[in-house]
Amino acid sequence: MGKHYLVETEEGAVFTGTRRGTPSSSARMSLLSKDIDLSPDEVASTVKDKLLKERVSVQLKDPVSKESVNKYMRTANTTAYGCGLPIFSPVLSRVVAGQDVRRHSWPWQISLQSDSSGGWSHVCGGTLISSHWVLTAAHCISDRYNYRVELGKHSLKASEEGSIAVRAADIITHEDYNVLLSRNDIALIKLSSPVTFSDTITPACLPDQGVVLSHGSPCYVTGWGRLSTDGPPADILQQVLLPVVGREICSQPDWWSVLATDKMVCAGGDGIIAGCNGDSGGPLNCQNPDGSWDVHGIVSFGSGQGCNVFQKPTVFTQVSSYIGWINTVMTNY
């Protein structure tokens, strides 16, 4: 902010359809801390009032109601830590270069770490989407390692107040993940214990099912990836503006051709700035008119020739194409 995949290490194989643990019979999407039980018809009229009064978690009987929760989380008082609403707003810039972020301005950004080297080390990024769940890329996961998630981090090297590390309890990769074509490159991590939202840790919102970003939409990729193709990994979380490249352009022969499908988002491609090794799994953050942020993409792949290759934009898994899958997983585990 090199390789085809933007994982910090290529050690170990990536397995498709990874299942760890057994599905739970409860349909739980924990958002905050105190349980209430809602039917789909009650969600729209109840969630906002509850969020304004106390921190709650919502027991959903119908996964389709997730969109209603998003809507009302966005409009809730910020003391309830609504999704996509950082307490410390990011400093947005159109500078064509990666830059250190304002501390805790992307509070849903996580560091996915493995024990592959004898200690915990950063492998990929990811996005907190509820108190129990993190969204990342399938190619970040290997059956050979254990994983944990660090939340509330600004510097990966420093010990920071407000940051925590939580072990992964379950990891579910998409059952149709194709490692060769980078299709369905999406995974969900269920945390071993729920996260308490705070000034430094809050979830991102999910986009509505089927939303397609228009060409030129200004979105930001965040991560601790390498600062250049052969450069060092970032210690401080980085952000960079990556305008969306429309599918009609990204799928042209001299761009990504048939590798860019209708379930992917392309962004960047100017040959100057892009995602890089270690950014994989992290979010493409796009702001809504109301000021809240949706995670529209999951960093998936880039050019094997290097991080910043002209007409080879960073390619993301398009989150809006997988809302049904996300809801099903969150319901059944």
From TrEMBL:
InterPro entries: Peptidase_S1_Elastase_sf, Trypsin_dom, TRYPSIN_HIS, TRYPSIN_SER. This is Chymotrypsin-like elastase family member 2A. It comes from the Eukaryota. It is found in: Secreted. One of its GO terms (cellular component) is extracellular space. It holds the Pfam family Trypsin. The keyword Secreted applies. GO terms for molecular function: serine-type endopeptidase activity. Residues 95-331 form the Peptidase S1 domain. PANTHER family: CHYMOTRYPSIN-LIKE ELASTASE FAMILY MEMBER (PTHR24257), CHYMOTRYPSIN-LIKE ELASTASE FAMILY MEMBER 2B (PTHR24257:SF19). Keywords: Disulfide bond, Hydrolase, Protease, Secreted, Serine protease, Signal, Zymogen. Its main location: secreted. GO terms for biological process: proteolysis.
